[in-house]
Amino acid sequence: MIDILVRGGLLVTMDSDRRIIRNGSVAIEGSRIVAVGERVTEKADIVIDARGKAVLPGLINGHTHLAMTLLRGFADDMPLDKWLSNKIWPMEKLMRPRDCYIGALLGSLEMIKSGTTCFADNYFHMDQVARAVIKAGLRGVLSYGMIDRDDEKKMREEIRIGRSFVTSFHGKARGRILTMFGPHAPYTCSTDCLLKVKELARRFR
Questions:
Q1: Strand, helix or coil at 52?
Q2: How many CB atoms lie within 10 A of CB 138?
Q3: Predicted local confidence at residue 178, as pLDDT
Q4: Other C-beta atoms lying within 10 Å of the C-beta of residue 118
Q5: Most exposed: 72, 131, 147, 183, by fewest CB within 10 Å?
Q6: pLDDT tens-digit map of 140-193
Q7: What percent of the chain stands above pLDDT 90?
Q8: Per-residue DSSP letter, 70
Q9: CB–CB of 148/154 below 8 Å?
Q10: What are the chain's domains?
Q11: Cα–Cα distances in Å, from 117 out to 108, 110, 112, 173?
């Protein structure tokens, strides 16, 4: 007896042979796929009828800021520099940890609905984004978004926060959370900051 059987779908396997299996089934036990094919006959606690549907591996969102789901539609159609400086950064200063949690949880639900199961995120209050990952059951590759703007004191603080996040959350949620160092961009981080992050990344590799 297995936990879940997804039966009768068009399986897009993405295996080494890129097989597509018509009228195929997927057997799931716990958190693992244990069988894929046309002749999966195990009995299951839950049977999902996938006839007329495609069944494929989860999608990966390679670049997102989930908490910004709350800012969708805010100040559209502006040049990037003005959008950031005049609208987004002032608004982000008002965002509290719970705002980031709620935004990340909402974004997580939207990704689940669209078939996305893993994402990479770079923002602030990242402990709250990690909390949303744990709650939603997704996989996340997370980083604290460092911004120093050529301020040496700010750089040291940003690196401290980034390092603390990496060491505190890497491998959490039974391995579903991975962490990395995340300088925001060349136009918001000094060369010194980028070089120090490079060395840290090598050390923690």
A1: coil
A2: 24
A3: 98
A4: 18
A5: 72
A6: 999 999 999 999 999 999 999 999 999 999 999 999 999 999 999 999 999 999
A7: 91
A8: G
A9: yes
A10: 2-55 (2.30.40.10), 59-204 (3.20.20.140)
A11: 9, 11, 6, 14
The confidence score (pLDDT) of residue 40 equals: 84
Structure tokens at 118: 């893993």
**Helix and strand counts by DSSP (H, E) for the chain:** 6, 10
CB 20 within 8 A of CB 12: yes
Within 10 angstroms of residue 47's Cβ, the number of other Cβ atoms is 14
Q: How far apart are CA 6 and CA 23, in angstroms?
A: 10
Matching residue, tokens 């962490």? 179
CA distance 179 to 163: 10
pLDDT average, residue stretch 68-73 = 94
Q: What are 37-62's pLDDT values in tens digits?
A: 888 878 899 999 999 999 999 999 99
- Residue 118 is which amino acid? C
Spatial separation of the C-alpha atoms in residues 36 and 118, rounded to whole Å: 21
Q: In 3-state terms, what secondary structure has residue 17?
A: coil
Of 168, 170, 194, which Cα lies nearest the Cα of 182?
Answer: 194
Determine how β-strand 20-29 pairs with β-strand 32-37.
antiparallel
Measured in degrees and rounded to the nearest 5, phi and psi for residue 184 equal: -65, -55
Give tens-digit pLDDT for 57-69.
999 999 999 999 9
**DSSP secondary structure letter of residue 84:** I
